[in-house]
Amino acid sequence: MGGLTTAEIARAFLVPEATLAQRISRAKQRIRESGAEFRMPPAAEREERLGAVLNVLYLIFNEGYTASSGPALQRVELSSEAIRLTRQLRSLLPHDGEVAGLLALMLLTDARRSARLGPDGSLIPLAEQDRRLWDRGMIEEGTALVSATLASAPVGAYQLQAAIAAVHDEAPSAGETDWRQVLGLYELLGKVAPGPMVTLNRIVALAMVRGPRAGLAELSRAEAEPALVGHHRVEAVRAHLLEQAGEPEAAAAAYRRAAQLTLSIPERRYLEARARASTARSG
Q: What are the CA-CA distances from residue 215 to residues 199, 220, 238, 244 (Å)?
C-alpha cells in the first residue's frame, strides 16, 4: 500500500504538520516507556481502540478517493486497500454497526469513482457526473448494508454518512436528490459526531433546501471555527453559494481564493475553470 506522509496525515486530521509530528513523537515515547505490546485490548478499552482503527481506515480511504495534494485526484491503491481492510474487519466483527456503516460508506462513495474525471483528467463534480458510469453493484451492496445496519444497531456517525451517500446514489439525477432528507441526516450527524466538514456539508444541504442566502449566512458564522480558517473548501462552498445567488463576480473571486489555497492540482484546475466561467457570466 502506498504510504501517507506526515503532511497528508496532518491535513486529514485538520491540524498543522508540526502538531501532528509532536503527537507522534509523544506517542512513541509513551510506548517505549510503558513497554506496550501488540495484543488484544481488554474489553473495557475495545470500543475506544476500535474507534481509532475505524478513523484511520476512514482517513486512508478519503486520501485515496480525493488526494489532498499532488497531480492526481485519486490514489486508487489507498482507497482499495481501505475497503479491503474494512471488509476483513467486518468479517471479524459482523454485528458491529459502525464497522458495517464504514464499509457501506466506502462502497457507496467509491461507486462513483469512474465518473469523477473527464477524458482530459478534469474533475467532474457530483451534480454533473454521468450516473450511468456509477458501479451499481457497489451501490446495491452498500445500500443493503446500511439499511440492515440502521435497522439493527445503534446509530453511529459512519452509518449516517453512509445513509447520506445512499440518498445521493439512489437519486436518478442530481435534480431529484432528496435534499430535505440529506439535511435531516446532516442535522443528526452534527449531534452524533460534530466536525468542520460536517458543518460545511450541512451548509450546502441547507442552501439546497432553503436557498443560497440561508447557506451564506450560516457560512459566515461557521468559518471562524479554527479548523476551517484558511481551508480551501470554505471558499469553494462560498463560491458555489454566491454563484447560486446570482453573484458571478463575487463567486469568481471566491473560486480564485479557493484555487490558491488547495494543494490538489486537479481541484485547483477545476476551481480556476469555475472562476473563469463565473467571470464570463459577470461580463
A: 11, 9, 9, 10
Among 148, 174, 152, 172, smallest CA distance to 162 is for: 148
User: What is the C-alpha separation between 269 and 283, in angstroms, rounded?
Assistant: 21
Tell me the pLDDT tens digit for each residue of 206-250: 999 999 999 999 999 999 999 899 999 999 999 999 999 999 999
pLDDT tens track for 134-169: 999 999 999 999 999 999 989 999 999 999 999 999
Q: Which CATH architecture has domain 199-283?
A: Alpha Horseshoe (1.25)
CB 7 within 8 A of CB 17: yes
C-alpha cell at 243: 454563484
Decide: 258 and 235 in contact? Cβ < 8 Å.
yes
Among 281, 271, 186, CA closest to 236: 271
Nearest Cα neighbor of 183 from 156, 203, 213, 211 is: 203
Long-range contacts of 186-191 (CB under 8 A, 24+ apart): 188/155, 188/160, 189/157, 189/160, 189/161, 189/164
Write out the DSSP string of 196-214. HHHHHHHHHHHHHHH-HHH
Structure confidence at residue 15 (pLDDT): 61
Q: Where in the chain is the domain with CATH 1.25.40?
A: 199-283
Residue with cell 485526484: 73
End-to-end CA distance of the chain: 48
In angstroms, rounded to a whole number, what is the distance separating the alpha carbons of residues 47 and 52?
9
